[in-house]
Amino acid sequence: MKAKNGVDWSEWEFEVYGDCPKYQGIRIREKRKSDENISSSDSYKKWQRLMAFDRGQECDKKAVLCEEWKEYENFLEWYNENIYEIDGEKVGLSYRVFDMNNHYISPDTYIFVPKSIVDLCCGKGNEARRIERHKQAIQTIKDEYKDKIPKAVYDRIMQSAKKEGAE
């Protein structure tokens, strides 16, 4: 059945009931070999948010997603290789830890870090305030997370901080 917007959703095994909202892309409902619905997995939700960034539907309208990650399977592979846990804390994702002015999202710029660091790095405000928050995030990583986060992640953050002069 074709929806009001002219898209034949039945090709993708969607059922259409009444009028569809404005077409903004295809939402994929994939099933893996185990018949587990991956649409509810954390990795899929994170990938959908990246796709929203790429379409300019999130707060950073300048954000651009690399071509490689426009395929969920590529993102999932990176996600599974890089995810880690810290006792008692949530771990979030950020593409601004290495460079607070970054708008390009890729395996080289995206990183798992404690949620408190993500909140510091992604804060809004004028340029001076953002620089101060970024320096504070780097100092917090040095003081509180050196032995909690993977060494490779810590070293990479410190290396980028030296380049930016934030250390």
Question: How would you describe this protein?
Answer:
- This protein folds into two domains: 56 residues, no CATH class; 82 residues, no CATH class.
- It is built from five helices and four strands, in the order H-E-H-E-E-E-H-H-H.
- It is globular and about 55 Å long.
- The model has no long low-confidence stretch (mean pLDDT 76).
Kindly name the structural category: mainly alpha
Ranges where pLDDT stays below 50 over 5 or more residues in a row are none
Cα end-to-end separation: 59 Å
Number of strands: 4
Mind describing the biggest β-sheet?
Answer: 2 strands, parallel
Order of helices and strands: HEHEEEHHH
Biggest sheet strand order reads 1-3
Kindly state the percentage of residues in helix: 25-40%
Task: Using the CA coordinates, give the radius of gyration.
Answer: 19 Å
User: Percent of residues in beta strands?
Assistant: 5-15%
Name the overall outline.
globular
Number of helices: 5
**Roughly what is the average pLDDT, rounded to an integer?**
76
Number of domains: 2
Structural key phrases:
167 residues, mainly alpha, 2 domains, two-stranded parallel ribbon
In a few lines, what is going on in this structure?
With 167 residues, the protein is mainly alpha-helical.
